[in-house]
Amino acid sequence: MSRIVYVNGAYVPEEEATVSIFDRGFLFADAVYEVCAILDGKICEFEGHVERLIRSLGELDMGMPVSKEELLEIHRELIKRNNVEQGAIYLQITRGTADRDFVYKKDMKQTLVMFTQAKGLTEEKAGIRVVSAPDIRWGRRDIKTVQLLASSMCKTMAKAAGKDDAWLVQDGFVTEGSSSNAYIVTKDGKIVTRNLSTSILHGITRKAILRLAAELDMEIEERPFTIAEAQDAAEAFFTAATAFVYPVIEIDGVELNGGKPGPVAKRLNEVYIEESRKSYI
Ligand code: PLP
């Protein structure tokens, strides 16, 4: 059975889903997206993701094409129709369709598409190996736009080098992963992750993890760190909605924690899953 996706009010098999070639998402990457994790067929952190979606749209001079309640209903319907127990649910909102022109018009009829991806989220995590790469993305990484080409190229480069992902570096400091927030745990047990700014995406998982770490009395420093500091750390990990807390076991050829997932990442991942099971909807 083919996957059912959502396009502008209709649930259709993915082969039948179409969007205009004049959609500004296609022509100008004039679009934002969000992705929530699906756990036990339920949606994780819906409120946080919608809040960030509304902010991303607002920063690009757009509003929401449907209400928050309607959006939740579409999420639930798609998960049900595709029978997804674990995985991700994506939504993409473009400014809409118009003849090609750099200048956009106000209040266009937006395009809303949504789709699910089934994948395991709670299995044992072996850890990933990352390489550093220059962060060549635009300057408003706090807006979750669909301009993912730089990240896509970096991750592909990492894979071609036999590794799993890239950690992006600007002015000598790690900004974030190609599609995740980056953390290290210092030898004296502090969790370090880059402070919020326009240089990184304000991760919804990041926010939850920092809250949970504080509740576990872990010390947190929100500041930039270098690749050298990360290579000298006790452990490293990343967070993202579709990965939860994921160990990083090697950075630019240097293994951390003997090339094994570290205890802090493991503990935070367990706690995050526990908490998600209490609050998903
Ligand atoms: N940073 C980037 C560049 C991302 O693409 C993502 C997730 O897609 C994140 C961070 C993590 O954000 P979240 O925890 O909200 O998924």
From TrEMBL:
Q: What is its EC number?
A: 2.6.1.42
Which major enzyme category is it?
A: transferase
Q: Does the keyword Plastid apply?
A: no
Q: Does the keyword Lipoprotein apply?
A: no
SUPFAM superfamilies reported for this sequence: D-aminoacid aminotransferase-like PLP-dependent enzymes
Q: What Pfam families does the record point to? A: Aminotran_4
- Swiss-Prot/TrEMBL keywords: Pyridoxal phosphate
Q: Which PROSITE patterns match?
A: AA_TRANSFER_CLASS_4
Q: Which GO terms describe its molecular function?
A: branched-chain-amino-acid transaminase activity
Cofactor requirements of the protein: pyridoxal 5'-phosphate
Pathway as given in its UniProt record: Amino-acid biosynthesis; L-isoleucine biosynthesis; L-isoleucine from 2-oxobutanoate: step 4/4; Amino-acid biosynthesis; L-valine biosynthesis; L-valine from pyruvate: step 4/4; Amino-acid biosynthesis; L-leucine biosynthesis; L-leucine from 3-methyl-2-oxobutanoate: step 4/4
Gene Ontology CC annotations of this record: cytosol
List the catalytic activities from the record.
L-leucine + 2-oxoglutarate = 4-methyl-2-oxopentanoate + L-glutamate; L-isoleucine + 2-oxoglutarate = (S)-3-methyl-2-oxopentanoate + L-glutamate; L-valine + 2-oxoglutarate = 3-methyl-2-oxobutanoate + L-glutamate
Give the GO terms filed under biological process for this record.
Answer: amino acid biosynthetic process; carboxylic acid biosynthetic process
Query: Which family does the record assign?
Result: Belongs to the class-IV pyridoxal-phosphate-dependent aminotransferase family.
What protein am I looking at? branched-chain-amino-acid transaminase
Organism encoding this protein: Desulfovibrio gilichinskyi
